[in-house]
Design a protein that fits this description.
The complex is a heterodimer of chains A (about 290) and B (about 300). Chain A has about 290 residues and is mostly helical. Chain A is built from 13 helices and no strands. Chain A starts with a helix and ends in an 8-residue tail after the last helix. Classes of the chains: A mainly alpha (about 290), B mainly alpha (about 300). At the A-B interface, helix 4, helix 5, helix 6, helix 7 and helix 8 of A face helix 1, helix 2, helix 4, helix 5 and helix 6 of B.
């Protein structure tokens, strides 16, 4: 059979003549793109100038950094006594992250229902609780740690409270969003059988949101194990205190040892929580960030 | 036509009910073991973290009175009054603080931009569908993991020794951390694209860079932008504490005010930071929704 190529290759000039608007370069679109890029690049340059970046400073800094990295090899805690201190501090960090995350989840759980549009008591309370949660989230964990140190003194307890407080803000928001996204049909079903408001929440909404919430809590445990390493820098317990100390006293081999310890800890927690998460909510629902 | 359902006989009903109760009991036992395990772990970590509830209860007044104190002037002619009675005195350093705040946002911006550029350049090599070489792919993945696991403050502490005090180590610390976090997300976005257009451009003889430009980029760009915006908000918040270790921005003034008990300054600075972060939060959320709806347009 003979197939003519004329039939399947488009006749470009004819097409161009018939649909000129699809072939013309869209000036508007291009101008918007170029404008955006120009503004972003301008800000970029402004930032470099304003924050005092200079070529020499960056070059010499990178040179210095290279020396530091060389000084870090091989990783070495220094002595066995130090090694055990570091291990204890690491355990403290894990404990801070675990307890902080769990307590935050326990507090945020009822708050999430109050802050969700479909389960709240009234519109005003819902709005107010959302704004309070925003305010809590606006303050960094390190700042909360400083505030809590004023209350319970230096030590890991302040770290637990700091992680708890800052996570209440995040959890409250995430939980309420999960509750708002819950399917209405099962709630209506419970209502049609004569269930009260509490029944609707318990049997209609809770089974839907529980896996989502559990996944988020696990995810934040992971991320708090990371941020738990830094609250020690302001004196709120954990491995951060030692890390900052070793950096300030220029004990580079101990620094790299500590960094490796942290990497191992985070990898271990990651592995456990990925398993738990897939067990609880299946492979499909991994939280976004 | 009969519409009534035949009722089960009582003995059949009893077996069904029994099976139901057994199933519920097994489930309940599982949940109870789980709860018990979690409580045991909580007690253990409470012991490790030196949780002292009596101290918390005894001093919990301090927490609330702290907010009371930062809302009150403690010196000068207005001592003892609430801060909002005299905004000019409360925000006495507004000009200086606004400049510092702008610096903080710039640190966040530069860190986000540099990190996003790095993540963009590397993410295609970390995606399983575009990079067949497992060594290179896993290498890049491990690099991302390292960058996002080490906290930015730790990078900042190290960079301060290399680059000297000031915003430069702050920017680089945020950039490296951002590269790790965004690199992972970007690579996941790339792994989820529709491969048909990639096959199409490969079939026309396109090389790696051309495939990325014409087959991958159009599919992923709006997601990339959305993640970057989200990260920008996180980074501005992170930049606000960079000053705690001397890496520039408003954190320096904040930690000084907290440590030296300049109560009114603490509340003023916190308010400024919260306001800035909220404004950026709302702004980026709008932009992100616009981007996402653009992508979902047919």
């Amino acid at each position: 059979m003979k197939v003519s190529f004329r039939a399947i290759t488009p006749d470009l000039p004819a097409l161009r003549a018939r649909h000129p608007q699809h072939f013309a370069p869209s000036v508007m679109h291009r101008a918007v793109v170029i404008g955006c890029v120009a503004v972003l690049a301008g800000l970029f340059v402004l930032g470099f100038w304003r924050l005092g970046f200079s070529f020499e400073r960056i070059l010499s800094g990178i040179g210095q950094l290279g020396t530091l990295v060389l000084l870090m090899i091989p990783p070495n805690p220094g002595s066995w006594a130090k090694f055990f201190t570091f291990l204890h501090a690491l355990a403290e960090t894990v404990a801070i992250a675990f307890l902080g995350t769990l307590l935050a989840a326990l507090v945020a759980f009822p708050v999430g229902f109050v802050a969700a549009r479909n389960t709240t008591v009234n519109r005003l309370v819902q709005f107010a609780s959302r704004r309070v949660l925003d305010g809590i989230r606006g303050i960094d964990t390190l700042i909360w740690a400083l505030l809590w140190i004023n209350v319970v003194g230096l030590g890991p307890f302040a770290g637990v409270l700091a992680i708890m407080t800052s996570d209440i803000g995040t959890f409250g928001k995430l939980f309420s969003e999960a509750i708002e996204a819950a399917d209405k049909k099962s709630v209506e079903g419970i209502a049609s059988t004569g269930g009260t408001r509490l029944h609707q929440i318990r049997f209609g909404i809770l089974p839907q949101v529980f896996p989502v919430i559990a996944g988020q809590v696990l995810y934040f445990f992971e991320s708090n194990a990371r941020s738990g390493t830094i609250i020690g820098i302001v004196g709120a317990g954990g491995i951060g205190l030692h890390l900052a100390e070793q950096i300030r006293t220029l004990e580079w081999q101990a620094v790299s040892f500590l960094v490796i310890l942290i990497l191992i800890m985070v990898a271990a927690i990651d592995a456990v929580s990925v398993r738990l998460r897939t067990a609880i909510m299946g492979r499909a629902h991994q939280p976004m960030m | 036509m009969a519409t009534s359902l035949p009722r089960l006989t009582d003995d059949r009903l009893a077996t069904v009910l029994q099976a139901y109760h057994d199933a519920i009991r097994a489930k309940r036992a599982r949940s109870l073991t789980f709860v018990g395990l979690v409580v045991a772990l909580m007690l253990l970590s409470g012991w490790v973290a030196q949780v002292d509830l009596s101290k918390l209860v005894a001093n919990s007044g301090n927490f609330f009175s702290y907010f009371d104190r930062i809302m009150t002037f403690d010196s000068g002619p207005v001592a003892g009054q609430r801060v909002w009675t005299d905004p000019a005195e409360w925000f006495w350093g507004l000009k200086k603080w606004l400049v510092l705040l702008a610096d903080t946002i710039l640190i966040g911006y530069l860190g986000t931009a540099l990190g996003a550029i790095g993540a963009f350049l590397l993410c295609f090599s970390a995606a399983a569908n575009l990079m067949p070489n497992p060594w290179l792919r896993n290498g890049v993945k491990r690099l991302f993991e390292f960058c996002r696991t080490v906290p930015e403050i730790v990078f900042a502490l190290i960079f301060i020794i290399a680059f000297g005090l000031g915003p430069i180590p702050g920017v680089f610390a945020i950039a490296i951390h951002t590269m790790g976090a965004l690199g992972k997300l970007f690579a996941e976005v790339v792994e989820n694209i529709d491969m048909k257009s990639v096959e199409g451009s490969v079939a026309t003889g396109a090389g790696f860079s051309q495939t990325v430009r014409f087959a991958v980029l159009p599919q992923v760009l709006s997601n990339f932008a959305s993640y970057t915006l989200l990260r920008f908000e996180i980074n501005v918040r992170g930049a606000s504490v960079m000053g705690f270790v001397g890496a520039g921005g408003i954190g320096q003034d904040l930690i000084e005010a907290i440590r030296k008990f300049y109560y009114a300054d603490v509340s003023a600075l916190l308010l400024l930071i919260i306001l800035t972060v909220t404004v950026i939060d709302l702004g980026t959320e709008r932009l992100r929704h616009a981007l996402i709806s653009r992508e979902e347009r047919p």
